[in-house]
Amino acid sequence: FHPLPWRQRVAGGYMAAKISKLEEQFQKDAPREKQKDGTSSCIFSGVAIYVNGYTDPSADELRRLMMLHGGQFHLYYTRSKTTHIIATNLPNRKIQDLKGEKVVRPEWITDSIKAGRQLSYVQYQLYTKQKGLNYSSVCARGKQDPSSIHEPSKPSLNHLQSDSIKPQPSHTQTLSTEVLKSTHANHKANFTERSNHQGSQDTLLTNGYVHPVNAALKPQDSFAELQSLISTASPAKQPGLHSMQKDLHPKPTSNPGTSAAPQKGNLHDQTRVRLNGSYHMTPNSSTLADSSNPPGRSAAGAEAGIISEFFSRSRLHHISTWRNEFSEYVNALQSRSRAAGGAVFSGQEKLKKLRANCSSGSLMAAPQVRQSCILHVDMDCFFVSVGVRHRPDLKGKPVAVTSNRGPGRVAQRPGANPQLEFQYYQRKQQQRPLFFLNGVDLDLAALSMAEIASCSYEARQAGVRNGMFFGRAKQLCPDLQSVPYDFQAYKEVALSMYETLASYTHNIEALSCDEALVDATNLLVELGVTSDDLARAIREDIKEKTGCTASVGMGSNILLARMATRKAKPNGQYFLRSEEVDDFIRGQPVSSLPGVGRSMSSKLTSLGVSTCGDLQQLSISRLQREFGPRTGQTLFRFCRGLDDRPVRSEKERKSVSAEMNYNIRFTQVEEAESFLTNLSMEVQKRMEGAGLRGRRITLKVMVRKPGAPVEPAKYGGHGICDNFARSVLLAQPTDSGQLIAAEAIKLFYAMKLDVKDMRGVGLQVQQLEGSYADPSGQGPSRGRSIKDLLLAKQPAHSPRKDPPAQGRSSVIRTEFFKSSLRLSDPMPGTSKGGLHHPHTPNHVRTYLNVSIEVPSPSQVDQSVLEALPVEIRKQVEQSWRHREEQPSTSSHLSTPPRTSSSPPPGPSLGTLVLQLQNQPGQPCTTGIILELPDVSQVDPEVFAALPRELQDELCSAYRNKGNAQAQVGKKNPFPQLKQPAVGKLKRRYKKRNASPAKKGPSPLKKLFPGNSPAKSSPSKTLPLPLKHPGLKVSLTDVPETLSKFNPRPVPTLAGAYEFSDIRTLLHEWVTSISEPMEEDILQVVKYCTELVEDKDLEKLYLVIKYMKRLMQQSSESVWSMAFDFILDNVQVVVQQTYGSTLKIT
Amino acid sequence: MATLTRQDLNFGQVVADILCEFLEVAIHLILYVREIYPSGIFQKRKKYNVPVQMSCHPELNQYIQDTLHCVKPLIQKNEAEKVVMVIMDKEHHPVERFVFEISQPPLLSISSETLLSHVEQLLRAMILKISVCDAVLDNNPPGCTFTLLVHTREAATRNMEKVQVIKDFPWIVADEQEVHMEEAKLIPLKTMTSDILKMQLYVEERTQKN
C-alpha cells in the first residue's frame, strides 16, 4: 500500500478514468437517491466537496446529502474542480498543502440543509488564516454532540487506540442513534438497502489514496453502522437471509476496475467476510510504536485500515465467500424447517400437482427403486447471463464481464514493464497447455489488464476465456461487449436460485454462488417422479424466477453429476445413467476429474494418460506410487466413475486465512509489522466468526522475483513473484490476533525479506479446533508458583514475550524432564511413558540446558507446566531452587535471550541440573565446545537464520576452539513436514539430509549381502575347542570405509534431531493432514534409513513404534498403509545391515 | 582447561578400560536377567549408582574376566566392531544374541571434566535397560548356555596372535551356526553416544524359541 503523495496530480491514464467514472456513477446514483428520499433540493448546486479523513456525519452520508441537494462529491481531490474540502481535523502538513483552499467542517453541510439554503462557509472553516487546526471548536463540538463517539483527538493514531479501547456495545449504540437521527424518518423499509449503499460508498471513499490515517477508522464505522442499522431495522427478518445480507453488504456496487482482477489470488474458499481489522485492536507494542510516529504521516498507520478495506472492497473476494454464505443459508433453512416441524416445499407441491395432472401411466412408472441421484445445478455463464438479463440487445452476442469498459487500452504507468511480465507469463504458460497468449503477437503496452470474470458462449467460441485480460480478448474478438460487474444482481439471482432449490429440498450443498449440488434421492422416491422431470421443473423455475438459464447434470454420485453437467451445458440437462457411465467416462479427459489440475494432468500426460479410459489402465498401486496413497486411490476410483462423497450441506473448515496481495508496498519494516498485526486481527475476526482456534500459523509472502519490474503492469498488482511460506506450531490453539501477530512477525523476521519487495502477505491458521474455555485458566495458582519463582530469579532476562512460541520448547522441556526422571526409574520399560525413557542422558543434558536458559516466566508455558505430573513439576521447581542456591554456577551461562522455540546451538552448555544433583557447582562451560560441529559442516543458511545473538555466540565459540561438533541441524524444530507450501525450506532440509547419503551407497541400494557388515562371513576358521562356555572369535571383513568413523551429520527429519522433536513432528504430520504426501513418506523412510546407518537403532525403534501407534490409530486407512510402506522399507534396510528384521509388537 | 587428544592420553586404553568394565557388568546382568544360571549364584552389587546382579561363581567370573581381558586390546586399537553374547539352547542353536555394537568416533577434543560422569550416566542407562529387557523378550527355553563372540574389523585376528594375553587364552573362529540365526527379530535396546564412544545394544531374538 502506498498512498499517492498528497499533491501528486494524477494526470490522465488510470486515475483520470477512475475519477471520471466515479463522477459518472455519482450522477447516476443521484436521481435514485432522490427518489428514495423525498427531501431533495438544489442548495448545493455548484458546490463540489471532497471529504478528507474522518468526518461526522460520515463521508458517505455527506455524499448522500450532496446527491440529495444538488452538489458534487469528489472522491479524489482535484484543485480545479473541488470547491470545498470537508474535514474535522487535518495534519499540519496537509494544512500547509491546502493553503488557500476552503477547508470546512461538515457541519456546514448539515446546517445548510437544516437552514434550507447554502450558508456562508466562513464560520465553519476548519482553521483560520493557516494558523493550525481549530481545535477549540472541534472540541466544543465534540462535547456538545453526544452522538459523536470519536474523541476529537489530535490527528494521530492515538485516535485509533482510544477509540478501540472503548467498549464495543456503546460504540455501536451511539453510532446507530446517530445514523438513525441523520437519516430522518420513513426509510425503515429502505434500511438494508441504504446501509448497503453506504457501505459501498464508504469503502470507496476510504480507499487508500485519500487519507491514510483516517482511512483506518472508516471501515469500522461503516461496519458498526451496518450492524446497528440491520439490527435495529430488521430484527424480525429471517435469520438466514439476514446474516447473508449483512455479509454481502459492504461489497461495492461498482468500483474502479483495476482493483478487481488482481485479487484473484485472494479467493480462499474458507474465508468469511468480517469487516475491518483495526476495530478490536488493543494497544500492543506495535501499535504503540506506530502512534509514536509523527502524526498523520505514519505510513504504517495507513496499513491499519487497508486490510479491512481490502477485504470489504475486493469483489471477487466477496463472491468467493458466497459459498459459505449460501451454505449458511441452507443450514438456516434446514434448522428452521426442523424447528417448524417440517418445511413447506412449494416446488415439491408444484411437482406433485404436475404429476397428479398428467397422472397417466408414464409418470407412475417412475423408478421406485431407491437409487441415489445427485443433481448438479449450474447456472450458464452466471455473470454474463445475469449481466445481460435486462439487456436483450446483448443476447446472442459475445459478452464478457469485466471491469474494463473502454476499448481495452490504457495508458502505461511509469515504472511498469508489462512486456517483461507478459513474457514471463508467456514463458510460464508454455509449460502448460491451454493458454491464450501463445504465439500471438501482442501490442502489449496498451492492453487492458482487466481480467474477464466470465464470458458468454459466443465469446468462448471466438477463443475468449475466463481469466483472460480484456485487452487481449478484445483483440481476439473485436465485437466483444463488456458488461460491468453487478454484484447486487448476482446476489439476487444466486439467492433466488438457492430459494428455488430450497423449495424442493433442503438437501443442498452450496458449491459457489451459481452452483449447487442437490441430493434428490429421497425426493424422487417421495414424489415418484423421474429425475428428468425434477431437473426440468427446477430449470424452468430458475429460468422463470431469475431470467437466467441453468443446466442440470444428474448422476448416481457427485462426480457423475458434475460430469453430466458438462454434457448438459448450455441450458440443458443430462442424466448419466449407470449403464452408460463406463462408456461415458472412458472418453472424458482426465482434466475433467475433480482435483486434476494443471500439474497433475501434465504428470498424467507424461504417463501417457489423457482420458479416463487411459487412466483406468493404470493399477491402483501404480497410481498410489505416482501420486501418493490417497490421491492415487481417489484417482483410481474417479476414473471409474466411483465417488462416495456425500452431499454435505456444511463442510468442515480446515484453515482460516486472510491474504492480501494487492497494493502491498512497504517501505519500512515497521509498516510490514503493523500490517501483519492488522492481518492477524482480520484472521482473529474470522476465527471468532467461525468459532475456531488453530495451532499452526503459516505466513505466506509473495516477494517480487529478482529482476521483475518494480512496478507491475497491473496497477497495485503483485506482478511476478516468488512465494515463500513459513509456519510455526503453537503449543495450544489460539484465536488471539495478538498472539498470531507476534508469531507472524517472528516468522516474518525469520524470512529475512526486503520489505520493499514484498507484494503479498497471507496468514493462515490451520489445525483448527472449536473454541472452548481456555484450559490454562483452571489452575493458575499451580503454574504461578513456578512462574513466580522464575520471575523472582531472573527478571532481567525477559526477551520478547511470546508465550505461545515458548510453548513448544516448553513441551520439549517437559518431555525431557520426564525422561530424566525415567533415568532413575528402575523399571522404565513398564512405566507409562515408555516412549520417553530411552532418551540418553545426552539429550537430557541438552534440554536441561534449555530449561535453564529460559528463565523468563513469559517463556514458560503455564499450561504445559500444569500438565506435568505433580512429581515432575516438583522436580522442576526443585531444580530451580537448586539453581538459585548456586548463583555462581548460573553466572557463566551466557543466555541467548531469543532461543524461543529452537534449542540453542551449543546444546551442552550444561549438564547443569544433573550436575547439581551429583556434584554441585562444578563448572561446565567447556561443554559447548564439545558439541560444536566442524565449521565446514555448519549450514550457512541455517546459520544465517539464527538470531543475531546466537550467531555471535557461535562465532565466538568457533574462535575459541577451532574444531568441534554440534547439531546445527536440529536448529529448526518447526515441523515443516506436512506443509506442501514450504517448498523452499523443505528443499533445504532435503539437501542437508541428502548429504550423508552421498558418502556411501544408500543402504537401499546395497542389495548384495556381502557388503553388509553383519552378514560378512568369517574368512578363516581355526577350530579350537574350548570348554563351555566357549569363547570364539568371528572374523569379519568389514570394508575400510565403514571402519573409519567419519563424523557425519546427525540424521535429521525436516531439521528435527531430538526424539521429542521428531515425535512432535510426526504427531503433527499424522494428526494434521488426512492424506500423507508421498514425498513426506519418503522423507521419513530416508530418515529411518539414516538412523540405521548411524547405528541408532534405538531411536529408529522408538520412531517406528511411535509411528505405528499414531498411524494405526488414525482413522484414515491411508495412514496405516503409509506405515506399512515405511516399515517395509525400513525392515529391508535393517535386514541388509543386521541380517534380521525389527521386532515390532 | 586441558584439551586432550586420543594420542595424548592413550585414549584407546581409557575407552577399553571403561568399556570392558561395563561389558563385565552387562554380561553378568544379562546372565541373571535371562536366567542362564540360577539366581542363587548372583549377588546384588552397586555399579554406576544402580543395583546390578553379579555372579559369585568363581569360574564363571574368571571366564568372563579372561574373555574381556582379551577383548580389551582389540577395543584399545578400535578393532572390535561388535561384542556379542550369544545365548544358545540345548542344541547349541542361538536363541538370543545380545549385540554390543561399538564404534569409537574420531576424537576431536575432550575435556576431562565431563568425560567420566557423562559416560557413566550413559552406561547406567544401558544397564538399566538391560535389567528390564526381559519385558520385551520371550522366555528362553530351559538349559541354555552362553558364549561370547567378537566381531573384529579387518585382519585384527592376525595381530591378535602376537598379544600375550590372547595367546594365553586362545580364540577360535565362530561357527556359522553360532553366528547366524534363522528368522531373527531385532530389538534395539539402547544407544549411547558420547565423545569417546558410540555404542548400541540390541538383541536378536529367534522368532520361535521352543
UniProtKB/TrEMBL annotation, chain A:
E.C. code: 2.7.7.-
Annotated segments matching region Disordered: 141-177, 235-300, 819-842, 877-912, 982-1025
This protein's record includes keyword DNA-binding: yes
Comment on bound cofactor: Binds 2 magnesium ions.
Ranges annotated as biased composition (Basic residues): 984-993
Protein name: DNA repair protein REV1
Similarity comment: Belongs to the DNA polymerase type-Y family.
Any one GO molecular-function label of the UniProt entry: DNA-directed DNA polymerase activity
Positions of the BRCT domain: 39-126
GO biological process, one term: DNA repair
Ranges of biased composition (kind: Low complexity): 887-901
Main location: nucleus
Biased composition (Polar residues): 155-177, 252-261, 279-295
Bias (Basic and acidic residues) ranges: 877-886
Chain sites annotated for binding Mg(2+): 378, 514-515
Gene3D superfamilies according to UniProt: 3.30.70.270, 3.40.1170.60, 5' to 3' exonuclease, C-terminal subdomain (1.10.150.20), 6.10.250.1490, 6.10.250.1630, BRCT domain (3.40.50.10190), DNA polymerase, Y-family, little finger domain (3.30.1490.100), DNA repair protein Rev1, C-terminal domain (1.20.58.1280)
Pfam families hit by this protein: BRCT (PF00533), IMS (PF00817), IMS_C (PF11799), IMS_HHH_1 (PF21999), REV1_C (PF16727), UBM (PF14377)
EC top class named in words: transferase
PROSITE patterns reported for this sequence: BRCT (PS50172), UMUC (PS50173)
Keywords: DNA damage, DNA repair, DNA synthesis, DNA-binding, Magnesium, Metal-binding, Nucleotidyltransferase, Nucleus, Transferase
TrEMBL record, chain B:
Pfam family, one: HORMA
Any one of the GO CC terms: zeta DNA polymerase complex
Alphabetized UniProt keyword annotations: DNA damage, Nucleus
HORMA domain ranges (all copies): 13-203
Subcellular location: Nucleus
SUPFAM superfamilies: The spindle assembly checkpoint protein mad2
Biological process, per Gene Ontology: DNA damage response
Presence of keyword Nucleus: yes
Highest rank taxon of the organism: Eukaryota
Protein's name in the database: Mitotic spindle assembly checkpoint protein MAD2B
Species in which this protein is naturally found: Cyprinus carpio
